[in-house]
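Cross-check.
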Amino acid sequence: MSQRTDNESVWSPLGFERKHLMNNLLTVASLLFWARIVLYAWNQGVPRAQFAAVFLGGGMLIYIFEQLRDLEDGSRLEHLWLWFCAALSVIGPTYVWLHYQVLETMRIGYALPREYALGAVFSVVVLYLTYRAFGTAFVAVVIGAIAYAYFGYAIPGIFGHSGIGERQIINLLTMEFDGFFGSITQTVAVKVSLFLLYAGLMRGFGAFDLIMKLSFKTAKHLRSGVAQSAVLSSLIVGSINGAQTANAAMTGSFTIPLMKESGMKGETSGGIEAVASSGGQIMPPVMGAAAFVMASLVPSVGYVDVLIAGIVPALVFYISVAIGVHYMAVKQLSEDGIDLKKRITEIPDGYHPAIEMLRFGIPFAVLLYTLGIAQWTVISSALYTCVAMVLTGAGFPIALSFVQAEMGPRETVSNGLTSMISGFKFGAIAIAPITVIIAAVNGIVDLLNATGMPGKLSIALVSIAGGVMLFTVILAMIICLILGLGMPTVAAYTIVALLIAPTIVSNFAVPTLAAHFFVFYAAILSGITPPIAIAVVVTAGIAEADFWRTSLEALKLGLPLFILPFTFIYNPEIVTGGFGLMTAGSGLVVLFGAITVTHGLNCASKPFGISSPFSYGVRGGFVLLGTLAMVWPTMLPRIGVVVVSIVLMLVQTRLPYFQPVEGVPQSN
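Predicted model, tokenized:
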């Protein structure tokens, strides 16, 4: 008889049954988690801070159950540790829930000995789960914030402070409804969570299959259509699911193999998907859930204001990216392409397109009406959108089963219930790691606020830049890129919005909404910026491509996105002008500027017949012209630059050097 060791992949005698049991536990936990969130959305019967404790505990528990289900190579000790973390994810928030009134009103600034012990262990669990979900780099940021708070007395200069004791740190993080249970966690629990449920229900009822099928059908009409399918699908999916990596994994698993099969390099395929997945976070109406956080952080700005402000920049980005993808694709894709009809047939058949459009379009219309026209609260709009998704997602098939002979009503109801449960489960799994990192981010922000770091950082930024706005915003962007490394969009934006945006507003009189859009876009860029570039990590893995080359392709395609934040600073009417003519005109100029930048990076290898290395000067000239058109603060010079750029591009495209030699692929 063979003996098991602690390092065997399946140490439990239950074997497969253990994994099946964990999957069932995960399903039950997901249903209970969403039931509590829906109940709160319906009656809001408890204070938001108290509800945040349940939300965080439920998210942590779901994440741990998922890890236990998928843990194949873990030792017995690792399994036991995860079960210990599961117990603490219940005990800690439950204690805070039961003692909410005392902690919130009577015991502020201190805690009981048992509470310090519980808070310390719960903090360790949050740090461990953050490490497990997002790696060493982000945990180092959290530990750095704790160390800065504790050892502030030893830091010389402007960033020094009197220091915060270990008990105060534990109390702030776990027992005062700041820290892990603070305002950011509360915002995600109340305003963001139901949109992840909406995304999960869409997936459970087959909406993402419909999106992929529509993308492939669109691809039949363009030479670059296969690559454009990545842009289109990521645009739709990324706006809803709230995480670059989840979007990249979800759509990239289809689009990257498709692009490679059609003849595109793995590095290029991964770069295109990484940029498209990152850009999905800026597309209204959901904007990766960051729109709701922005509306809660910016005074006197509602969700509809954020939505309107985000339309023009998002269109600029996606049109420029689509053009850049076309440049890349025509150089690499073969003339014959692939059999898209066969690919379309591999996707499960749905109902008639008109029925599918109604089935998934009605909930989206409910979202737009309740938020944009009826001006309901975010939580009510999201709740009714989810209800509409359940009714149409399951109701349409049930109604059709009475007139179609393929499947009876009883079987259709069973399938609908299965799809709905899958949707709840998908949504819970999607939000669980976001819940963990948001708690950690909330802890960082509140610790830094307690030390006075935001004000000190503002003074330091302005001092280093010499009071010059251009240098200040460049430094601010660099800090945004660093602070956003490896984090989901909502978490990255929240940190930079609280640390960087106030500096730009207070020192240079930039409109508040423009400053927040600046840091929002800058934070998203961390997903495609080495050395971490978390979106590229995912897509390069799917493409089986080199990480650094994939990052380079992503940077080439996404360069207009790096310039676009500066447009918000120097031409704030892009995001503050509403639907006026000034906004439309300025947006059109910015679009032509972005196209010029994209053209310079991706045009023919010998622009105007000039060979390397001098051709790089020509490319740089196009990039410079495009940058001036996007950023220059007065309109007339920008229009002149656009005219010059269009003339140069027209001249170049008519030169014989621009035309590719038949049968010979072009390269950069």
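The CA atoms of residues 528 and 536 lie 6 Å apart. The two ends are 61 Å apart (CA to CA). Passed to J.P. for a second look.
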